Amino acid sequence: MKAFKDAGHLFRLASVFLVGGVLFLAFRGVLVPRSFGQYGHYRGNAIKETAALPISYAGHQVCESCHADLLEVKSKGVHKRVACEACHGPLATHADDPASVQPAKLDTAVLCVRCHEANLAKPKNFPQVVSAEHSGGAPCETCHQPHSPAIVAVAGGSQ
Amino acid sequence: MQIPVEGFMYPNEVELQWSVLIVLYPFLTGLVAGAFILASLERVFMVKAVKPTYRLALLTALAFLIVAPLPLQLHLGHPERSFEMYLTPHRSSAMAMFGFVYLWYLLAVLVVEIWLDYRRDIVVMSQCTTGWKRLVYRVLTLGSTNISERSLHIDERVGWLVTVIGIPSAFLLHGYVGFIFGSVKANPWWSSPLMPVVFLFSAMVSGIAIVMLLYMLMCRLRREPIDMDCVDTVAKYLFYTFIIDFSLEMLDLIHRIYEADESFRSLDFMVHTRLFLSQVVIQILLGTVLPILLIGLTQVVKLAAKQRKRIYVVAGCLTMIGIFAMRWNVVIGGQLFSKSFLGYTTYKMAFATREGLLTAIVLTVLPFVILGVLVKLLPPWPEKKSAISSVAVAAYGAD
Q1: In angstroms, rounded to a whole number, what is the distance separating the alpha carbons of residues A57 and A65?
Q2: Cα–Cα distance measured from residue A69 to residue A31, given in angstroms and rounded to the nearest whole number
Q3: Domain boundaries, chain A
Q4: Nearest CA-CA distance, residue A74 and chain B, Å
Q5: pTM of the model
Q6: Which residues of chain B have pLDDT under 70?
Q7: Cβ contacts of B239 within 8 Å, gap of 6 or more
Q8: pLDDT tens across B341-376, in order?
């Protein structure tokens, strides 16, 4: 048993590693959420939790059911494929109760350049302007109609 | 702050996501792997001449390994989440598995090897020191004061085994860093199967150089004569690895030039403009060719010890700068050009921010501070007060 005795310190080292390993497994058992890996490499419950969050976007069909007059205008203009809430922001609360929740007024000098400011990375055929040259900071609304912005359409009636 | 852009960049390419800290990270791990491989020369390949650097190399590796993950942590938006990598590892991600490589190397290789090698000293010092130091050493002994000849012999054999396992582990540690860059297939500057090998050899070069410099510095500080035989041998190994490293890098370069794929004109332009100083001048000329010539000189011409020492110091420092420049050119260079190959951006390094220059400087100095503490705690040279220790050995090692 002499060899055993002289290697005693190695067994001590091994037990330090063992204790470390066991502690790690214990921590892992506590810290890894129960539902982890249920469907994939993520927390299964995350789906339920996300589904339970309050809805903030109503969807354009809902808006259109009350604002049919606006749809009339918009569906003829170039913004026909831009959803209401892409500009107005999430308004599910307003759609649920229009009387008490008033949508905030939009500032077109900030809103429109979000999509239309000229940028090399945008497809060439997407309408874009260098706003500083095009309008000099004036709100786009002064010349464009937000729901039907094309100027030719107003002037020539061709669109 | 507007970032100067030339030509066309995609919007997400304008600002560099991988900063100077990500440059520092492969630099630090490279030093770890290189220092360890130098140490294993003595242990496994029986190069007795480098013995005086053996322990110093191990401690250097440990000091740098402790700091190595910090640049990554500082780069993360949520550093606390990095721990999840251990809890729920994703086996298909090279970066995720790297956490285990790191842990394996730190705990199963480096710490065990150092502990086995120092066990006798630790036991002796747990007997002849007082106060908190004694407590530290007592904990480090793990409660076993057995330093009989047989037990030390066992340590020696087990230590040898750990080193043998450690060499491929050290290769793995740094090859892995190169692998991660080399497998980014979207980036032609990185994506190359040579990347892990180039990283590995440059790691060995920088690790050997730093241990050589540290050894000479420590001798200076302790007013001890430098063991020229040792430094000459280390320099010789530095020379050989450097030549392999340089050949590999040139191979990579020539292959790129000859292959001249669609990215070539863009990369070529970059090397001639934005990266000219850091790549051609600093990395290749000053940081590689010059030190190789300098050390080569000592291999061919017979020079006095004093001159050799000077040459080694100059060559060693140039090497460190050159390897850092190489990491810089890989990490930063790989982000300066557009994937469209039509434009180039600029890296603006901030100063006192989380990923700024100041942080990088602190993280570079930190390993040396840790090394200082380690050297104080576990002196890598034979103790001078041999009288005390022989008493202790007589008392505790006699069973």
Answers
A1: 15
A2: 55
A3: 53-104, 105-159
A4: 31
A5: 0.79
A6: 1, 383-399
A7: B292, B295, B296, B299
A8: 999 999 989 899 999 999 999 999 999 999 999 999
Residue with tokens 């590892």: B89
Query: Are B257 and B204 in contact, with CB atoms under 8 Å apart?
Result: no
Written as six digits, the tokens of B39 are: 């140490």
* pLDDT confidence of residue A158: 38
Could you say which DSSP state residue B284 is in?
I
The owner of tokens 């890894």 is A32
In our burial notation (b when 16+ CB lie closer than 10 A, e otherwise), range B204-222 reads: bbbbbbbbbbbbbebbeee
User: What is the predicted pLDDT for the residue at B245?
Assistant: 96
Show which of residues 77-106 on chain B sit within 8 Å of chain A, judged by CB atoms: 86-88, 90
Q: How far apart are CA B236 and CA A19, in angstroms?
A: 44
Residue A141 above 90 pLDDT?
A: yes
CB-based contact B119 A5, cutoff 8 Å: no
Q: How far apart are CA B393 and CA B148, in angstroms?
A: 9
Q: Compute the distance between CA of residue B149 and CA of residue A39 in angstroms, rounded to an integer.
A: 57
Q: With 60 as the cut, is the pLDDT of residue A159 above it?
A: no
Amino acid at site A116: H
pLDDT surpasses 80 at A2: no
What is the radius of gyration, based on Cα positions, of chain B? Answer: 23
In whole angstroms, give the CA distance from residue B323 to residue B30.
9
Contact B146 A6 (CB under 8 A): yes
Collapsing DSSP states into helix, strand and coil, what is residue B344? strand
* Token pair 């494929």: residue: A81
pLDDT tens string B28-87: 999 999 999 999 988 888 889 999 999 999 999 999 999 999 999 999 989 999 888 999
